[in-house]
Design goal:
ten-stranded antiparallel sheet; 9 helices; alpha+beta
Length: 388
């Protein structure tokens, strides 16, 4: 048993039994298609023609459409969070706490078929204003393509908490008021968005020698977020398509201790897949449904941690240009994007160096994501390899 509060306790006994274990999970049945890639960048609101326009991509150094590096999480089932949600803790829910990514060289193209290897790493308990005693648990997902090449490794942090305690405290109800937008402010955000889109380096390589510490990236605004945009994000994940994946090994996710209202009905889903699809029935329904959001201690519909991670990777990827390559990122998520909010991404070059081990020229961009009130939603460094 673990507690930082005299009244509220988390029962971690089932979690403790599974520390370090290799896990089963879902695997996509078919290789990624070009439509999967196009749907992904559409859902992530990332209008880079390298990932959807075959004529532009044919003129690039790749010679064809290539997936953004953020697409690795789309080749998984469950956003990479599943190996961090291990062991039953009754009455709990979870939100994303952060992701760390390592990329090893191979890019993902339509026709590639990635498989995942998963392991539960560790956890810690801390007291939070949001829910009192809260578990921060970590799990690893290794992505390999059909040739056995390691494409990427994701270390995901899940924030597991007692939903009843989060409801009682009402933290986000106070900290995340519904924004009141004016036409003038929305026009400013739209202008910022267009400036960011048109800043894309594309085939004009960003040269490592011309980048300096202190350089700032243009702001990328995303939103205002809506139920429609959250649903579009969810549907851009291939695993949400009926029949697209198969399960291998024990299903630890179903035994996590979800509230009844947030659980899937796997038996009934054999006749109606919507009953286990996550959005209509299951742990993700609070993202688009205010009633179920409030049930788990959030004030209204809210966004996905996996999307926040993708926004960061795409943001730095666009700045780096078509031939830039992300090597490593470590981003903490602190505040969800709620319906009506705008997420603002800003970046600054904080380091540049030559890396003899890779024979590479690297730049570190510190990315900060805030909402319209200045609350920090996510923050962390992204290391990117640039042509020299």
């Amino acid at each position: 048993m673990a507690s930082t509060d005299e009244r509220v306790m988390l029962d971690t006994r089932d979690v403790d039994r599974q520390l370090g274990k290799v896990l089963g999970g879902g695997q996509l049945k078919e290789p990624a298609t070009v439509t999967d890639v196009r749907r992904w960048v559409q859902g992530m609101q990332y209008p880079n023609p390298l990932h959807y326009d075959e004529d532009y991509a044919a003129r690039s150094s790749f010679g064809r459409i290539v997936a953004p590096q953020s697409f690795a999480v789309c080749c998984d089932t469950g956003h990479g969070a599943t190996p961090a949600i291990v062991g039953a803790i009754p009455g709990t829910h979870m939100i994303f706490g952060g992701d760390e990514w390592w990329f090893f060289g191979p890019r993902i193209f339509p026709g590639d078929h990635l498989r995942q290897e998963r392991r539960f790493v560790d956890y810690k308990i801390a007291d939070t204003k949001f829910a009192g005693p809260t578990m921060f648990s970590r799990g690893d997902t290794v992505h390999r393509n059909q040739r056995g090449e390691m494409v990427a490794k994701q270390r995901s942090t899940a924030v597991r908490y007692l939903a009843e305690e989060a409801r009682r405290r009402g933290f986000f109800e106070q900290e995340a008021p519904v924004p009141d937008w004016t036409e003038e402010r929305l026009a400013q955000i739209d202008e910022q968005r267009w400036s960011w889109i048109r800043s894309r380096k594309g085939a004009e390589e960003r040269d490592w020698h011309t980048v300096a510490v202190g350089d700032r990236l243009l702001t990328r605004p995303i939103g205002p977020h809506t139920v429609q945009s959250f649903a579009t994000e969810w549907r851009s994940f291939t695993f949400t398509v009926w029949g697209s994946s198969r399960h291998e090994g024990p299903d630890h996710i179903e035994e996590a201790g979800w509230l009844d209202e947030m659980s899937r009905n796997l038996e009934a889903a054999q006749e109606d897949p919507a009953l286990a699809d996550g959005l209509y029935r299951g742990p993700s329904r609070g993202h688009v449904d205010d009633e179920h959001a409030r049930l788990i201690g959030l004030p209204r519909a809210y966004g996905y941690g996996a999307s926040m991670g993708a926004w960061v990777l795409d943001y730095v990827g666009q700045w780096a240009g078509d031939d830039g390559y992300l090597r490593h990122s470590k981003v903490q998520y602190r505040f969800p994007p709620f319906e009506g909010d705008v997420s603002m991404l800003d970046g600054e070059v904080v380091d540049k160096r030559e890396e003899p081990a890779f024979g590479a020229h690297l730049v570190t961009v510190q990315v900060t994501m805030t909402n319209q009130d200045g609350s920090v939603m996510a923050k962390g460094p992204v290391e990117v390899q640039l042509p020299a």
